[in-house]
Each structure stands twice: as C-alpha cells, then as structure tokens.
Amino acid sequence: MKDKAEKARAASLVLAATEFDLRNTALRMAAEALQKAKANLFDANRADRDDAAEQGLAPPLLHRLVFDEGKLSEVIRGLTALADLPDPIGRVTLSRELTPGLCLYRVTCPIGVIGVIFESRPDALVQIASLCVKTGNAALLKGGSEAKRTNRALFEALGEAFSRAGLPQDTLGLMETRDEVGQMLGLDSLIDLIIPRGSNAFVREIIKNSRIPVMGHADGVCHVYVDAMYDKEMALRVVLDSKTQYAAVCNAAETLLVHTHSADSFLPCLKPMMDDAGVTLYGCRRTRGIIACPEADETGWGREYLDLKMDVRVVDSLEEAIAHINRYGSGHTDAIVTTDSAAAETFMTRVDSAGVFHNCSTRFSDGFRYGFGAEVGVATGKLHARGPVGTEGLTTYKYRLIGKGHTVGDMASGRAFYTHKDL
Amino acid sequence: MKDKAEKARAASLVLAATEFDLRNTALRMAAEALQKAKANLFDANRADRDDAAEQGLAPPLLHRLVFDEGKLSEVIRGLTALADLPDPIGRVTLSRELTPGLCLYRVTCPIGVIGVIFESRPDALVQIASLCVKTGNAALLKGGSEAKRTNRALFEALGEAFSRAGLPQDTLGLMETRDEVGQMLGLDSLIDLIIPRGSNAFVREIIKNSRIPVMGHADGVCHVYVDAMYDKEMALRVVLDSKTQYAAVCNAAETLLVHTHSADSFLPCLKPMMDDAGVTLYGCRRTRGIIACPEADETGWGREYLDLKMDVRVVDSLEEAIAHINRYGSGHTDAIVTTDSAAAETFMTRVDSAGVFHNCSTRFSDGFRYGFGAEVGVATGKLHARGPVGTEGLTTYKYRLIGKGHTVGDMASGRAFYTHKDL
C-alpha cells in the first residue's frame, strides 16, 4: 500500500503541472474507453451481482450494485460535462505588489493525493476519479467488495485511457482489500485528504481511524421549522417535499419544529397529508395534544430515520427552535418557513449549519441543484469546504512571489518600503 | 473544561450574529483597557519574570516572556489596526438564481470556537484573542505557565472590555493547566479548530493528540535553489538574507541547493560572505570539493537549524532540486534564483509548498509582509488555509437559500426548471 501511495504522490506532482486541455482530453478519452469496454463492464457487473444474490445481499444493496446501460450513459454524460467545465486550477485569487518589483500571486492548485472510499455503487468510482483528474489530483480508490469485478473493470478502462492521453501512469490507484484501506488511513505523510462515501457508521469509522483530514458527512439530520407567522399552504408544501421527495438521502428532513402559535392551525392540516404520503409522525407531548400520533422519544432528539418517519416537536419561540437545531442537528441543512423576514434573518445567521434555507425544501441542498455541475459530496465540517462540494473543494492554493533579488533586510533597513497595492 | 467549552460554544452562536461595528468597538475598548491596566500588567509580568529567573529559565525564553512598554504599545497598535480592517464576516462570495424566485447566496461566517495554545510570549494572547473577536469566533486560550500571571491579567482586561462593549461574557476562556489542554483536545464536538503556536515538538504533540483540525506548522525547512543560469550578485543577496536576516524563525532558509553548472562560480563567492555573517556551511561531498567546510550528513537532509547554520548540496538538474525539496522540505516556503523564466515556472508549479518564490528571499513569507494586516500564523497543511493566515483563515461560509415555497418535487416533475443564473 505504501508503494501505491508513493507512486500516487509522485504522479500528483506531475499532474499539478498538466495543462487544462490535457486533463479534459483525458476525460473525453475516458468516456470513449468506457463506451468501448461496455461488454466487458456489463459482464463483470453481472458476475458481481450473481455472487451478491447468491450470498443473499439485501435487495436495496443489490439495486445499488447495478451498472447497466442507464448507469453507463449517465457516467459518460458526467465525464463529458466535466470536461466542459472551466479550469479550477491556476486561477489567480489575489495579485498584489508588495514593493516595487516584488509581486505576490495566490494561485489555485491541486491538493495532491486523495483517498476515496465508497460503498456499493460502482458509478461513484468514475464520478470521483474524474473529478480528481479535472482538478489535477491523484486518487487512490476503494469500492465495495461486492462490486469488486465491476470496479476493477472500470478502473482499468479509465486508467488505460488516462495513460494513453498522457497523464502519469499512477494517476489512479486501486485498493481491493480492507487491509489496504487500514494501511492507507495511516499514511498521513503521503495522502492529503480522505473522502468517504457511504453509511453513517462507515464514515464515523473512517474518521475515527485516521489523522488524515476527512471531507464528507456522517449524519444528515435536517430540520424544518414552521414559525409563528407563516403561509400554511407553503409550509405544507415545504415539509412534504423535505420529508418525502426522497426519504433515504442525507438532505431529507428528519425533524419538524412548529412554533406554539402555529401548531393548532398547522398540525391538523399536516397530519392527513403525511398519512396519505405514508409518513409516520412521532410527536412530542404537546404535538400529541393536537394530533393523534405515536410518541417521540423526547430524551434524545436528532434521529436520522432515512425513511418515511418524522419527529415533531412544538417549541415556544424562534430561539428555542434555533437552540434545538444547534444542539441536535448535524450541521447539514435546516429550513425555516416564515413570512417574517426578521425571523428568517435571525434563523439564517444563528443556525450553525452548512445550509440555512428560507421558504424552500431542504432537498435543494445538493451540488447539482446549486449549479456546481459535479459533486464530491456534502461536507458538514466547517473547515476547507462546507456544504455541497464541487471541483473547488478539491483544490488548494499556493503563494507565488516574484522579485528581482528582493531582501527583507532592505525593507527592514528602510531602503525600500511596502506598497501593498492590489494589481 | 467541558463547561468552559460549552460556554464558549454558546457564546460563539451569539457572536456569529454580532454587528461589524460592535466587534470593532470591542477591539478599541480593549486597547483602552490595556492602557489603563498598564501598572497591573507590568506588575504581573515582573512577578512572572522574577519567578522564571529564579527557576533558571534560559535567557532567550526570559526575553520572550517580557511584556513592557514596547510590547504594550505594539499590541495596542495591533488592536487599533485590526479594528480598521474590513469585515471578514458576511461577505457574499456567490449569488445565484437556481430557478425563478429561488436564490442561493454563499456568505462568509465565523468558524465557531477556536482553541489557541501558545508558548511564552504573552503578547500572542492579545493578538490571537483579538483576531478571533474580529472574525466573530469564541476563543479558549492557554499560554505558557511561566507567563501565568501576565496571561491572566491580559485575559481579565480584554474579557472585561469585551463584555462591557456588549460581546457575550464567554467570548474568551482561559485555560491555566496542562490538564485542561489535554481535555480540550478531546472535545471535538465543541471545538472547531486548534491553533498551536510554539516549538516544533510542541506542535507535533498537539497534532498527535487531537482529532480537532489543527492549523499551523511544525517545521519550517525552507530552501533556496540557485539554478544553472543565474545572476551572481542577486543569488548572494537572496541566500544571505534568507539565511541571516533572522535565523531563528520558520521562514529562514535551512538548505541551499546549487546547480552543478553554477557551483564552481557561486560557492567560492558565497563562502567568505557567509563566514563574515557567522554562518557555518555544511557541505555535501561535491560542495566540499569546491569550498572548505564541514561535512553535511547526507543520510538525512531537511534539518531545521533555526540558527546560523546551513546545509549545502550540489544538484545535477532543476528536477533534482525540485525532488529534493518535495522530499525533504516542510511545504513552507522555497525559492529559486534564476534568470531562466521557464525554469522558474517549472519550479513554482512543481514545488509543493505554500510559498514558491522566484528571485527573492524566503523571509518574505509572512502575513504582515503579504499585506494581510494581522496574522494567525503560517499554515503548512493544504486544506482550508495555506501559507500566512490572516482573518480570512478564521472564517468559513454557509449557503443561504431563499425561496417562495420551492420544492424539489416541482423541479423533478418539470413544473419548474433550473436557470443557474449568477446574479
């Protein structure tokens, strides 16, 4: 594993100097290569699925394992779209004369070597490998063992296309055992960033076992808060969409908070709508005084159901709603429904989450919907990148300083002086 | 300790909503408070120094402990200058219509709670506490135990001024024992970032013992590389300044690399100049074939002398110089002296350091010299902030999304469509 990581590091230093066109050509060649390798890819996937079915893998997991015509054209479209995006590398974000003849430039550049660990879905391999190439990073990839053959076939097709385009041989590395992952997590001098994509428990495990920075999220405990002044029809729409548009994902709402002034008018209208949608509401004591529903466990809020279930709590004030979210939320996305713009402003300033929404569904919290074109995932940490992460999150920057023999001694002695003039 | 951290967390949520003017007023009131507390501060510092002298603290450390008229006016000037800087919070860095009526804004905001651990110099307490307030963060501070009385006096004067200005009571917290620091390092759910300022070993120890992200640097192993085509007078100036302008700091050069084509002409001129400056050169075998000097330990480059000592190595090519730096450097700052602009470009692209300099001294790598006004420190990590870190490095951002009842269901069903129009 150390050898793979060292090779990836060496490749990353070459990648950092590659031209924009070369990286885009490599992405387009990868799209063609996948198209050509189609039969091979489908065979590998069929073998993986047969094995998995034999081993009794649960149907939802079997479903995620599928790599078929639909998935293939999706990843090919993704590769082409990514090749069309502007260059995230080499952007000058600051240029300043420090003193005559001495100029400072802050320029975006790749991070280096990125370790990516994902569960099940083999299309994630293509998506993340291509994002790394677009941003000039080398990637070490580990997919779910149940998709082993598919992942290897995808890796070979991509790697071969990238090499043929002229990228370093070791731009991509494949890990195939848990043991390799364990070793990778310890290689903090060679690997700059880990991106885990998978279940809550899986991500926690990665975070616990590595000193390498991790970008991503474990929980997605999103809230919708219906304020004292609100538009009932709008609140119903937003709560319904936040909970039911796709319940199994991280940006679906898990808890509904309702201001005590609104609870009597809102909850009786919400209940039949949620019943129709198949959602079970779990209410606090005050909620159950208004509508009939099972009891919520009030000793521990912040449950992530990822299912058609929702906790409901009546609160006395905006402040109580904010405090609830900051205490039990996961810093992912939280929405307020209100016609009071001062309340919205307070909510959006004080709620400490990556996404703070006013009068819209939490389900909008997503890189594609934000218009980032491609997405690594959603980060709930506060450093580096926060919220949906596109190509920008896979870059860092360096300071280039260009002089004509300038010394600090001359500045200190007063022979020259700082101008700090932005160019 | 957990109680202190929880109070800081609560304070941080209020701080995030404070107005720019209030934070600046607090900084100006702190400047006045320190001026008024002068006698008290000097008494405390005198007592600390008496104790330290009695306990036989080494003279350089005793020197760092001093908080006198000079230091006081320096920190007061710093507070006033910081109050004059623009607001790092609330800057809109992206604004986009996602679909008619639904607008996305990316807005800078504070990180939250920052743990700061620094050795010796009590003025660091003022500097960092004030940077945290400017950026709307709460701070937990721990200084060197030898400056205990001074730190407490500074903390009390600042804390009292901040409260009087209207900031939350717990904006600043003081830790006074090692035990508290140990506990703090484990509070990753309450503390967002650790900034350690001190020796190499000290910073490594912090990094090893915490899962909280750490911003800063352990080593500063900076290089100057003199290329095949070079201006001799310029090279001499840059090497001399990089090594000797202030040898005890992280941005001083520790290793000189010389292209084999230049070694014969350059080294014999450098030697007497370095002798005059009191610098001992440690040469590789080839260096010692040209000038007389003690032998460098070639089995392990990358020594951080922080002293008037420098390793010298002759290399065969630009590539060898780059490989040396990427292997033995610390990613802090590295300079090339060359008249060949293609070589400079290659060097600056391929050297994987926060600062890559052309024809100027490594000593310029500093927040004040870059014109950032105030500095937290220099970060050698690649995520979040890199290089000299000013107020920007103490901020993060959140996404605000404002709609009129927008749902993802409407987008998915085609009743509405994404426009992704930047505003």
In the sheet with the most strands of chain A, the strands line up as 9-10-8-7-11-12
Please tell me what the overall shape of chain A is: globular
Q: Give a short account of the largest sheet of chain A.
A: 6 strands, parallel
Number of DSSP strand runs of chain A = 16
Category by helix and strand content of chain A: alpha/beta
SS summary, helix count of chain A: 15
What's the average pLDDT of chain A?
A: 94
Q: What percent of residues of chain A are in strands?
A: 15-25%
Biggest contact: A-B, 73 and 73 residues
CA radius of gyration of chain A is 25 Å
Low-confidence stretches of chain A: none
Ends apart, CA distance between termini of chain A: 46 Å
Description:
The structure is a homodimer of 423-residue chains. Chain A has 423 residues and is an alpha/beta fold. Helices cover 42% and strands 22% of the residues of chain A. Chain A has 15 helices and 16 strands. Chain A has helices spanning 2-15, 20-36, 38-54, 59-65, 69-84, 123-134, 148-165, 178-185, 200-208, 232-244, 260-276, 285-288, 318-328, 341-350, 408-412, and strands spanning 92-99, 102-110, 113-118, 138-142, 172-175, 193-197, 222-226, 253-259, 280-283, 309-315, 333-337, 355-360, 377-379, 387-389, 395-406, 421-422. In chain A, the strands form 4 sheets. Chain A has a 6-stranded parallel beta sheet, with helices on both faces. A 4-stranded antiparallel beta sheet of chain A has the order 15-2-1-16, with no helix packed on it. Chain A has a 4-stranded parallel beta sheet with strand order 5-4-3-6, with helices on both faces. The longest helix of chain A is centred in the middle third of the chain and has 18 residues, at 148-165. The radius of gyration of chain A is 25 Å and the shape is globular. The first copy, chain A, starts with a helix and ends with a strand. The relative contact order of chain A is 0.13. The model of chain A has no long low-confidence stretch (mean pLDDT 94). The interface between A and B is large, with 73 and 73 residues.
